[in-house]
Amino acid sequence: MSRKPLIAANWKMYKTPAEARSCAEALLKSLQDHTRDEIAICPPFVSLSIVLDTLSGSNLAVGAQNMHFADEGAYTGEISPPMLTSIGVTYVILGHSERRQYFNETDELVNQKLHAAFRHKLSPILCVGEKLEEREHNLTEEVLMRQIELALRNVSPNDASSLVIAYEPIWAIGTGKTATPEMAAEAHLLIRSQVARRLDRKSADNLRILYGGSVRPDNAPSLLNQPEIDGALVGGASLNPESFIKLVRY
Ligand code: PEP
């Protein structure tokens, strides 16, 4: 089963539009001939257009970090799926642990957003992962199964062809602590088997499962060489173009 790896940069709430443009220019210069992996850059909303313009016509895709599930409406401060697709955005990160933790996003809300992404032909990068205390109490499997079951409610195998899942253990995000390649691979196997149960075997075999949590140029090779790991969602190390380029080119 060959799944083209995806390396996605999550810039979180960093970089002004001018900084985003200069970072995108540096990435374009060094990565425009990189074909082994797909690459997606996810800047803050206000920098989507400038990054799309900079990367236009290249092999580097652009994603949003969140969106509302409705097409339009009285939802002050929100951004809708058609707003993203109308400017050329192709990926959207959904259910990131920072959104779940600081903005009270529930599995039910993530499910609504996932359906909206499929309706609008956006490829969702669905984030799942356990907290430290859940891992310490041997609840990792239960948490992952529940998050996937609820996120995929009423999703059909047909819808799911563009789905990407990112396994992001919360204790590893922005902490410098990384899951060992074996721990990550074990979680990815659990996720794939749950997707096979919930959708079907073919969808599970085609699904790209990324690892996220303190991925850096030094630990990327051992993680990304695991056959079960189909790429990475990179936060901190994607903010500096040199470090992201080094990580991609491991
Ligand atoms: C993330 O934001 O999804 C992430 C994995 O962050 P970091 O790489 O900084 O841990």
Automatic annotation (TrEMBL):
It comes from the Bacteria. It catalyses: D-glyceraldehyde 3-phosphate = dihydroxyacetone phosphate. The active site is at 96 (electrophile), 168 (proton acceptor). GO terms for biological process: gluconeogenesis; glyceraldehyde-3-phosphate biosynthetic process; glycerol catabolic process; glycolytic process. One of its GO terms (molecular function) is triose-phosphate isomerase activity. Keywords: Cytoplasm, Gluconeogenesis, Glycolysis, Isomerase. GO terms for cellular component: cytosol. The keyword Cytoplasm applies. PROSITE patterns: TIM_1, TIM_2. Its main location: cytoplasm. Substrate binds at residues 10-12, 174, 214, 235-236. Pfam families: TIM (PF00121). Pathway: Carbohydrate biosynthesis; gluconeogenesis; Carbohydrate degradation; glycolysis; D-glyceraldehyde 3-phosphate from glycerone phosphate: step 1/1. Its EC number is 5.3.1.1. It is found in: Cytoplasm. InterPro entries: Aldolase_TIM (IPR013785), TIM_sf (IPR035990), TrioseP_Isoase_bac/euk (IPR022896), Triosephosphate_isomerase (IPR000652), Triosephosphate_isomerase_AS (IPR020861). Involved in the gluconeogenesis. Catalyzes stereospecifically the conversion of dihydroxyacetone phosphate (DHAP) to D-glyceraldehyde-3-phosphate (G3P). Belongs to the triosephosphate isomerase family. HAMAP family: TIM_B (MF_00147_B). Homodimer. This is Triosephosphate isomerase. It comes from Acidisarcina polymorpha. The lineage of its organism: Bacteria, Pseudomonadati, Acidobacteriota, Terriglobia, Terriglobales.
